[in-house]
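Incident log, structure service

09:12 report received: a user says their structure output differs between two submissions of the same chain.
09:20 pulled the input from the user's history:
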Amino acid sequence: MDYFLDEEQLMIRDLARQIADEKIVPVRAELDEKEEFPWDIMKALAQSDFFGLYIPEEYGGLGKGGFELSIAIEELSRACLGVSTSYAANALGTYPILLFGSEEQKKKYLPDIASGRRLVAFALTEANAGSDAAGVQTTARLEGEEYVLNGTKQWITNGGEAEIYTVIAITDRAKGARGASAFIVEKGTPGFTFGKKENKMGIRASSTRELIFEDCRIPKENLIGRQGMGFIVAMKTLDKSRTGVGAQGVGVAQGAFEAAVNFAKERRQFGAPVISFQAVQHMLADMATQIEAARALVYSVARYIDSGARDVSKESAMAKLFATDVAMKVTVDAVQVMGGSGYMREYPVEKMMRDAKILQIYEGTNQIQRNIIGQSLIKETAKKRQGG
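09:34 re-ran on a clean worker, output below:
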């Protein structure tokens, strides 16, 4: 379908596709096998200004929005979800500064982020705080001119590789959800170390590590927004970033679909190409339809968020939920279309299926997305009744 991309958006899409085909596809299997962080590809993306896509021009970025970011993420995900996660997590970590940071923080950090000189990570999840974000145990205590952080963050994407971390910690436990705050912590700060690199089922090119804070002292100027705004910062960040996860779903589904179609054209059974069989055609037809529906929803929601809409939790959740469920179904079906070959590591769909699973889990499980949508519907119904 034609989504009426303008000239700059087409350029972003085409350049991202070129980098994906030339830089990612030849090494994706090796990166997956060795669990190797894709630094060379990150540098290529930095040289092409991809890290500055969504950052305002006054801070060294290109001044585009989440829609352009989603276009780039989709194309990278078509080649390798591990690589696209390493790239997209940078935006996830940057949004707290972009949305709530002071002018001084923006001037200090955003130019380096936009240039790709310094990677970023977002640290919310803990052993007892995933879907239940209110379960955060990491604390930040104000002592004079410094905050002292203690605690552990788990499964942090870009952990160990990133140099800038946006961290959610509790500053006043008595206030419950209103007692959390957001901070900027730089790699190399005394008291800030990393646990082992996790050995994962998928997105193995992406680095996932534990963050450990032991009397880690940071300047009080590193507080993002005001004290007590931590969960607002986290939720608004996720509202912005979830279309990127949806774009990942569209991209990996598209990559798996293309591989399945090409295989079905070449593989012959009973004297004819597999694609000539109606059973296979129906599977491919469903896959194509689901991908296009997911892309339409993700693009529409990304544009809606960029328009300045305030309450986007429901729509953002819908885009993430639908596109990532599609990604899982399409990658599983791609393996089925390719049969025994699809199950073998020499073909990319085996990896795509492993990779796709995380999309239904991170940045809020798809069950949590359904909760968000359901709660939004209840609020909307209540408002209509009051208005009537």
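09:41 both user submissions now match this output. Likely a transient worker issue. Closing.
09:42 reviewer note: Residues 7-118 form a domain with the Butyryl-Coa Dehydrogenase, subunit A; domain 1 fold (CATH 1.10.540.10). The chain has three domains: 7-118, 121-227, 231-387.
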